[in-house]
Every structure is written in C-alpha cells, then in structure tokens.
Amino acid sequence: MKKAREESRIIGIAHRVKKTADNEARPTLVCILDRGKQKICQLETETDELDFLLGRFPVKFRDVEPSEDLSAFRPHQVKWKPVNLKAEGAEEKLAQTPDSQKRQAGKKWFMAAKAPVEFDGLKSGDTVSMCLGAGNYFVYALARHGQDIGARVFRVAPKRLKENRLDDNKDNDHVLLAELYAGQPLIFQPALPPDLSLIAISNKYATRMDAQKDRIAHEQRLWQRVRDGVFLNPEGEYPEGTIEDMIVDAKANSRALGLLQEIEDECNADLEKEVSRHPLYQRVFKGIIGFGIRIAAPVIAFVGRIDRFSKASSFKQFCAVAPNSAGEFQRQRRGEVMAGRPDIRQALWLFAEQANRRPDSEWGQVLLAEKARLRAKHPEAVIVERPDPKKPGKTKKVKLYTDGHIHNMARWHMLGKFCEQLFKDWNEFQEEQDRAEIGGENSSDSVSAAA
C-alpha cells in the first residue's frame, strides 16, 4: 500500500473565483505531478470543477467527423463554433448537419468543431494539496468523493504557503502546492470527516446570514413604501393613526416577507441541526452555560480548524478581543477597519451578556471577579482629556472608571480569558480527533494491504 501511494499522483490546486468584479477571468489552476512530469489544467467554470472531480475533464481534443454521432459526449465538453447564417449555403449546411453536432442558443446556432479524446481528473490513489480556507466547497467534494474512490485531500496553512513563495506572485501557487507536498508533506493537514462537517457549518452559516439580510432588506423597502405612501399623497389626504401601526399591518399582510421569514427559519433550523451534532460542539461548547448554538455557530464557522493559530494571542486577535499596544480594547467605529472577525466579536459580546445574566455560572463568576479587581484598582471615577476622533487635533474630556466603564472593561477581560481557555480546550479536542481519524485511516490501510 505504501509503495502505491509513493507512486501516486500529486495534484496541486489553487482555487480561485472564476471571474472578478472587473470581469477578469481567473480560472482555478491545477498542477498534476506524475512521476516527475507536470501537467497544467485550467478549470474555467464550476462545471469544469465538477468534471475534474468526477474524472471526466477533457484535456485533449480532435476534429469532429462530418457524420459522427456526438450524443455520447456531454454538450459542454464539446468545442462549438458559431454559424454565420448570412453566409452563402450556411442554412443548407446547417440543415444537413446531424442533430448531435449542432445546437441553438437563442437566435444563434452553433456547430461542433472539436470533440474530447482524452479526459483527466481525480483518480484512485491521487493526493490533492490545497490551501487551507480556499475553495471549501471544492475541498468538501474532493475529500468526500475521495473516500469512495481512494483519493486523499491535504491542506496547508496560508502562512506556510506564503513562506515558501519566492515572491508575492500567487499565479504559480498550484505548482508550489504540488511541489510542497512532494517535498514537505508533514506541513499539510488531511481533510478528515470532522473538517468536512466544519465546512458544511460554514456554508450553512453563510446561507443563514444571506437569508437574514434578504429579510431585513425587504423590511426596509416595506417601511419606505408605507412612509412614502403616506407623505407622497397628491390628494393631500392623510390617514389617521401612526405610521408604526401601518408598518406592522403591512408586514403582517406581506406574502413576500412571510416567505423570506420562512426561508430564514429553515436556514436557522438547518444550521442548528448541523452545529448541534458536530463533535466539537458536543465536546467543547455544549457544557458552557450561556454559549448556545447560535452563539457557537459563527465561532465554529469562521475559525474552522483551531490549529491554524500558532498561539492563543493570535486566536484572540482573530476574535477581535485582544487589546492594542496601549493595553486598550478595540472599539469598532463606523468607517474604520478593525482587526478580527466582527461576527465572532458580536457572538462573544452576546456570550458576555449571558454571563452577566448568570452570575452563578463559571464565566459569570469570572466576570464578577474581574469587576471586583478593576474596581479595587480604580476605586474612583476620573476625568481625563482624550483626542477627539470627530475633531482631528482637538481633545475632549472623558470620564473613566464609572460603574458602566468598569463593567465593559471587565467583560472584555473576561472574554480574553475565555478565548485563552477555549484555545486550549479546542486544541486538545482537535489533536484527539486527528489522532483518532488518522489512526482509523492507517488501520484501514493495513487491512487493505493484508487483504
């Protein structure tokens, strides 16, 4: 079995968005290393990615024979050329062409020019190397299909990939990924079933947030419609009652809003189901009082694998709960870019609220202890001058260490300690999961080799 894997192909995949906002084509790039030889492929569409996944991506073409039946090929795998119907004899030639060699798109006709003669894609024994966090849906499909056909997927942290680039050019990442796995396989992490479940959680969280944004956007449009309907009245007749009551009635009678609310509820149910059954939630998060499924979901979705962070301080910074160089916790102001994920920061803030409402819980006790410590350190409120962010070059007087200020400071300190403990517990869980999954995989290999 080991010999077979040593001789297996290594496929480096640099996943990219197929088209940028400027309409620039950016296909997914693939480098296949097979016994020292390189083969480069470009997956220009998601359909190309699907064909590569299923081992049916065309890599070599031939001319089409005049009377050839192309029904055995999928239409998107054939290369087509447009027909100029205004040219002499074009309509007659089109009528004589077999149906499998022509197709219509709107008012335009196309004739088959080349048919595939050689295919490639994921095969049994292949090893795929990708960058952690890139093309998660493709990673999921490759790893899941790989379980059925005997292929494996490994991912490397973006930091490690960046360290091995000769320059900042990412255009050759697919080649670098293949060569890196061939030379340094230990820096890669296997895409195991728990990782695939994390990808599913991330996808369902994004879907849920999109559904929520659609519902909120429709509510705002509904509010504007009601408001304008009242004030922009050419007859000058204005209804009795409040606009707020009219908006409530409009929401209750809006079929579109009701449908969007149903979609959001379905997305919430799917997300909660996926999170609640994941071993990570069961082992690390479920026992934390006040840290429910909806609070855990964005943390799990955006972090993914905790070993992407080398130390707790990096994890705290990603969660946006780390103090700055002056020892002050960050404030998120409109128009300013803040380090870390705002979704996780908001989730942790909600957890701090739950800890405040549950003073007898573990982290409620930590919050009370932090408040007592800070009040002992700052027994009285003071007034200081600080730079005014709204008026550059000027200062304003600020009152510090009031009860509210102490409470907010204690919350951030408590969340910092919570993230440190979470980092430790999550890493222990991740290591146990990896050992169990890799051990199971090695056991299966031993059984296969013995057979």
Automatic annotation (TrEMBL):
InterPro entries: Transposase_20. GO terms for molecular function: DNA binding; transposase activity. Residues 284-358 form the Transposase IS116/IS110/IS902 C-terminal domain. GO terms for biological process: DNA transposition. It comes from the Bacteria. Signal peptide: none annotated. This is Transposase IS116/IS110/IS902 C-terminal domain-containing protein.
